[in-house]
Design brief:
Length: about 425
């Protein structure tokens, strides 16, 4: 008897998601609690585990389909059970097309084999991945002409055509290349090949996460009165402190001492003097928080995410660095939960890790301010009447001018600058 696999709860107020990827194929054995599919919501990716050990017998949805919480997306049979025949798929024109081997018994059906298939699943769009499987080509050996070197469907078709025209390959592929007798009278129309130097385009549907990011950023621009103030900070003292204590810090706490801990501490100190940067507008009221939950912008494979460091003003340097490292790891693995990204009263975004010299960040509603960090580079500055080289960083504070006045914004940024240039202030609360 088959057991239904249902879409789990995806978080508060989230009722549906997109089936991003099947992690198991029909006929494959699965263990209890082993992920069989990956769902993508507006905020995070969620893996769907198998409720029992057995064999995946049926997939009820395709990749890219929208599924609601509680919907049955697959069925698990007893170990060794065969996979149910897949539903007929359709070609571009909408005509049903039976998949290869549809008349064979499930246990005897042979799936196309593609070298580096695991890598391809992670980097290729569904249309390109399907073309790779259909034409038995190795995606790692194809030069991509799409954006950022990505493979397009035309790249795969061109590689397949070149492979078929190669005399060395023809003899090996002859048995599979021969069309079934029923189709010999109607040969398929030749597909266009991209000409050398041609200009190709590929349409890829935006992920739910990217759509949510786009909507929230646009809402911020439409609603808030955005303004940005800038300053620069001499990083010499922080760099010296890290160099002096990094080995002892890592030995004691098991984590590296980074720059972010200093900036989180500096923001906590400055927010005490300028509480409006840690406030928000709700209707005709201003809500002030007596706690500081810092959203830290982290780059993930599918876009920017902002997990929250709770009660950052009460945490030690070690706690802050451990929390950030944990969030960074989860972001890369796609395992951040909705609860870890909910809330936040202030945001810190570090574009410097990507080489940004200066930028104007956009606030993360309903927050009212965001601090932008940038790359460190030696620049000439005047110290005691002498021109000297110092490791400098530009800071940018974007804020909602409806709530935060220019004087408050500048004061806050100066407080952060002072704390970074003299980290002793962080210890004696100045």
């Amino acid at each position: 008897m088959a057991t239904d696999v249902k879409v789990p709860a995806l978080g508060e107020s989230i009722t549906e998601g997109t089936l991003a990827q099947w992690l198991k194929k029909p006929g494959e054995a699965v263990a209890a609690d082993e992920p069989i599919a990956s769902l993508e919501t507006d905020k995070v990716s969620v893996e769907v585990p198998s409720p029992i050990a057995g064999t995946l017998t049926e997939q009820l949805f395709q990749e890219g389909d929208t599924v609601e919480v509680g919907a049955v997306i697959a069925r698990i049979g007893e170990a060794g059970a065969g996979a149910a025949p897949s539903a007929p798929t359709a070609d571009v024109a909408g005509t049903p097309v039976n998949p290869p081997g549809a008349g064979e018994a499930p246990a005897l059906r042979k799936e196309p084999e593609v070298e580096h298939a695991e890598h391809a699943d992670l980097t290729l769009s569904p249309a390109v991945r399907r073309a790779v499987l259909e034409h038995h080509v190795d995606p790692s050996k194809i030069h991509g002409t799409g954006k950022d070197g990505r493979l397009t469907k035309d790249d795969v078709l061109a590689a397949a055509a070149a492979k078929e025209s190669s005399p060395a390959e023809a003899g090996v592929q002859a048995p599979e290349a021969k069309a079934p007798a029923a189709q010999e009278s109607k040969p398929a129309a030749p597909r266009p090949r991209p000409a050398p130097g041609s200009r190709n385009e590929e349409r890829v549907k935006m992920t739910r996460l990217r759509q949510t990011i786009a909507q929230r950023l646009k809402d911020a621009q439409n609603t808030a009165a955005l303004l940005t103030t800038y300053n620069d900070v001499d990083m010499s003292a922080v760099i010296d402190a890290r160099a002096r204590y990094k080995d002892l810090f890592e030995k004691k706490h098991g984590i590296r001492l980074g720059f972010m801990g200093f900036f989180v501490k500096a923001v906590a100190l400055a927010a005490r003097d300028v509480p409006s940067v840690n406030a928000r507008i709700e209707g005709d009221e201003i809500v002030y928080s007596d706690f500081l939950d810092v959203s830290v912008a982290v780059s993930a494979p599918k876009g920017l995410v902002v997990p929250v460091i709770r009660d950052a003003d009460k945490l030690s340097f070690a706690d802050i660095e451990k929390t950030i490292a944990d969030y960074g790891k989860k972001a890369k693995e796609g395992t951040l939960t909705v609860d870890e990204m909910k809330g936040g009263t202030f945001t810190i975004s570090n574009g410097g890790v990507f080489g940004s010299l200066l930028s104007s960040p956009i606030i993360n509603p309903p927050q009212s301010a965001v601090l932008g960090m940038h790359r460190i580079e030696e620049r000439p500055v005047v110290r005691d009447g002498q021109i000297v080289a110092r490791p400098m960083m530009y800071l940018a504070l974007s804020y909602d001018h409806r709530l935060i006045d220019g004087r408050e914004a500048v004061t806050f940024l100066v407080r952060v600058k002072e704390a970074i240039e003299d980290p002793t202030r962080l210890l004696i609360d100045l």
